[in-house]
Amino acid sequence: MEQTSLLLLQGEAGRRDGYTLRSPLLLAGSASARLIAAFMNLPVSVHWFALIDQREAGNRAFKAGHNIKASGLYAQGIAAAELEGDKAAVAVMHSNRSAACLGMGAVEEAAREARLCTQQNAAWSKGYARLGEALLALGQWDNAVDALKDGLELDPHNAAIQDTLQRAVTSSSRHQ
């Protein structure tokens, strides 16, 4: 039996994990979400359910270390989010895909996905964190430092970005 938690949110103000929910629905297992949406007669598109399906399946694959599968699922989620017209969701999916690409050693693709993430949501620090990590893996230390500084401008107390920035600065100084 699928275990899931349901989060009911109201209107445009509802936010979680970078998503802005356009209806009073959820981040939940899709089967449960469909039942609740049908019962409550909520106006939720098929694309929204596809987005949730792909994100959840991608997250499970990523956590299990199946980066290639996760990358493909996130790509499908990007398509669904674009059809839904939700730029924040597109950014989250590009960020997740960047992490999956980095995990499988496709560092140029990871950097490309992170750049797409920051283009979709320039105000989200995690996109710059992903970009900095990918650029660091590519050996582009100065560019990584710049991206990570951009992320810290948005979230000055983010310990993960601070740690990655320190690694990038150290790598940059060693290679000069």
Automatic annotation (TrEMBL):
Molecular function terms, GO-annotated: Hsp90 protein binding
Name recorded for this polypeptide: Tetratricopeptide repeat protein
Keywords linked to the UniProt accession: Repeat, TPR repeat
Pfam families (UniProt xref): TPR_2
Organism, scientific name: Cymbomonas tetramitiformis
Keyword Acyltransferase on entry: no
Organism ancestry: Eukaryota, Viridiplantae, Chlorophyta, Pyramimonadophyceae, Pyramimonadales
TPR repeat start and end residues: 125-158
Keyword Magnesium: no
